[in-house]
Structures are given as structure tokens and as C-alpha cells.
Amino acid sequence: xxxxxxxxxxxxxxxxxxxxxxxxxxxxxxxxxxxxxxxxxxxxxxxxxxxxxxxxxxxxxxxxxxxxxxxxxxxxxxxxxxxxxxxxxxxxxxxxxxxxxxxxxxxxxxxxxxxxxxxxxxxxxxxxxxxxxxxxxxxxxxxxxxxxxxxxxx
Length: 154
Description:
By secondary structure, this protein is mostly helical. It has a single domain, classed as Ribonuclease III domain (Ribonuclease iii, N-terminal Endonuclease Domain, Chain A, Orthogonal Bundle), CATH 1.10.1520.10. The protein contains 10 helices and no strands. Helix 6 crosses helix 9. The longest helix is centred in the N-terminal third of the chain and has 22 residues. The chain starts with a helix and ends in a 5-residue tail after the last helix.
């Protein structure tokens, strides 16, 4: 599953421990006491990294637009509904590690859980050094539009 999931993301992680941690909901820890960390710290980092990525992309894409309009665009892209839809497109629901109680409560389909999971992807990349201080552009040979289309920039 991790390799197929990384293929869908278009990103291979240098630190293989980051991916399972990023997909581990806090409820998983209740059922698996040997696990010590959930995805909450990565979510915190990912939210900030996502804001930087969105800001830089919008700044570049809309050079004549004023701050207020750019802020509205960024808010729309960082909104829960958009991120939850993106998470579904990436196949995140199937990859999440949920505890039995969260699974029974429909946690795999909750928009908030999917939004949070989507925020963790930029955090994982940042933790690996791919974007410390400044987000990196799309992979060599890929246009910024192509990166946005497949969700790599988000």
C-alpha cells in the first residue's frame, strides 16, 4: 500500500517512517499502545506549509491581483471542502490508519479528517527538507500548471 500510495501522490519519501505517521489518526494510538505518535504534529506543520505554498503559487499566478483578492483565493483553496475533495482524489481515505471507534463512527469519510490528512502531505515534504524555508517548484520537466492539475503543489 505505501508504494502505490506514493505513486498516486507523485512523491517518494526518503524517510519511510513519515508516511505511516502522517496517516495515523490519534484514535489508532488507543488501539495500538506501542505506537507513540499520531499525525497531529505533522498536521500543525502542514497547515503552515500549505499556506506558504498556496500564497507563493497565487502570488505568481495572479501578478496584478491585490492582497484582498489573493487572500480570498487562498482561503477558498485552504477550505475544508476543497481539501477533503483533494484527499478523496488522492485516495487518502483508504490509506488512513484509524482506531476501531473512529472507523465505526465513519471517520474515514469525515471531511475534517480528510482535510487534516491533506494538510499533512506538505508537512511530510517539509520534514524531509524539500521546502525548508522556501517551497520547491514542480519536478523537473513539469509545468506549474501540470503540478497544480495533479495536486502536487497542494
